[in-house]
Give the backbone structure.
Amino acid sequence: MIQFPNCKINLGLSILEKRGDGFHSLETVFYPVALNDLLEIIAVSGNPNELVAFTNSGNPIPGSITSNLCVKAYHLLKADFPQLSPVKMNLHKRIPIGAGLGGGSSDGAVTLLILNDLFELKLTKEKLIYYAAQLGSDCPFFILKEACHATGRGEIMKSIPINLNQYTIALVHPNIPISTAWAFQQITPSIKEKTIADIIHQPIASWKDELINDFEIPVFLAHPSLVPIKNYLYEQGAIYASLSGSGSSIFGIFPKGSLINTAPAFDKLKMDII
């Protein structure tokens, strides 16, 4: 069975406070974007000691196989559904890693969706969200796959009526992996005068001046080469441009049909037009 895990962008991201459990309270809007990985899972019979035979192609995936969210998702369900047979997984990775696009979270969530169908577990969306939340704070979003206003650690989500289909989204991937843990350590949480929920319902032309990603300041200070990318997107006619998540990908929202050129200085960068 094959599915295509998509990525996300963050429309604004406010870090509000450090919680007693070590996490941060935040506010953001997750928006789905059609840059996809490819994930294939096949049930197999064989050595029960090797429950998951995992391979990957495309972008290299750092870390051990046991830490991969696809593998973790299988074992999460296996604990409650011991009838799950061993599987082969192949993940073709197109979504950049450490880029603020949620690719790993999407892969883990879509693993749950595939296993639910493949083994006819009949899990409801609510139950899938429950399992996804155990994989990571933003994993439930990739079960919902629609624009969501997120609070708490990012796991409290409410669908929000925002549709950017009338715009073109350009994603720029600078190939600079950013550690999410490092990025959070750079932030001094603060309560904002206006919430992202308020700003997001304003005309999109107002977002440039009001819709802020708190990670931009520390990430841009650490990686000043990212600043000209955002500036160039505005020069090309973007209505709104921002770092996504904790970076390093930068996106621009353009009027539909815009001709977006890559500056010679950015020729080595990857840009997807969606």
